[in-house]
Amino acid sequence: MAQIAILAVLFVFLITYLASSVRIVRPSQRGVVERLGRFKGTAEPGLRFIIPFVDKLRLVDMREQVVDVPPQEVITSDNVVVSVDAVVYYEPVDPQRLIYNIANFLLAVTKLAQTNLRNLVGDLQLDQALTSRDSINTSLRSILDDATDTWGVRVKRVEIQRIDPPADVMMAMHEQMKAERTRRATVTQAEGQREAAVTRAEGERQAAILAAEGVRQRQILEAEGQAAAVREMAEAERFRQLTIALGEAEAIRTVYQAIHDGNPTADLLAIKHLETLAKIADGQATKIFLPLDTSATMGALGGIAELFREARPSEQRSTEQPVIEQRPTEQM
Questions:
Q1: In this predicted model, what pLDDT tens digit does every residue of 134-174 receive, in sequence order?
Q2: Which of 67, 84, 247, 262 has its CA 20 to 30 A from that of 24?
Q3: Domains of the chain (ranges, CATH numbers)
């Protein structure tokens, strides 16, 4: 019985020993192996065996982690007290330095972030601090990354969560923002009205130009139409007069040809001459001017007068006869 009990104790001890010698390192972890209190090496992910009670395996999480920096009061360069807090994202790169070079990494990085954040914001005015978050984040990340390099940690980024001024300052800022927005709205409205007026004036000017151009084109077309009409009328009148002249010329040629063909006597010519004189004397004038070279005609008239006296001796000549004056023709 005693032997069985001893074997059972040995079996339990062996199982416990074997279980204590097996360690599993996950992919997101790295292991630091210590043998009898001294650094032996770094364990990579996977199944690892150690000597129980001699070796010790300390696991380090290598994933990116976040540290929340508590809010703190900061006085800006223009003497405004603001409450500032931030968030720090870091990633372990050397598990050995992270374990042996810093005792409490979270506390150290929190205090370091608070101190440098106070320095950075304290050098700025309130308006600059509110509008320069990106530059503050970049500067703080660079400072923390340099300081934590000896701890085996790389600071990935730093983000400012809030910068809260006092309530009265916030109210003043809101009033200022409201006034600025009102001013911008007024300026924008004035600019819009000016642009509208300019656009309207430009439209009216273009409309006036187009109207004047239309009037000018209409007048040009009317003038061209009138000129064309005048040309057509002049051409028609010229054609009419030419036709009349041709007709009259043809009639005169026909008459003269008929006269020449008929071979009229001197008596007939004298009678036609008297008929012409009667038509001339039929007007209101009492004097008739005839050319001087009428001796042949006057001789013919005298002969015709003698004939009329013999035919009708009892008839008296009219007392009112037109006075016929002869003027010598002008010698050219």
A1: 899 999 999 999 999 899 999 999 998 888 888 888 888 78
A2: 67
A3: 18-61 (no CATH), 65-165 (3.30.479.30), 266-315+323-327 (no CATH)
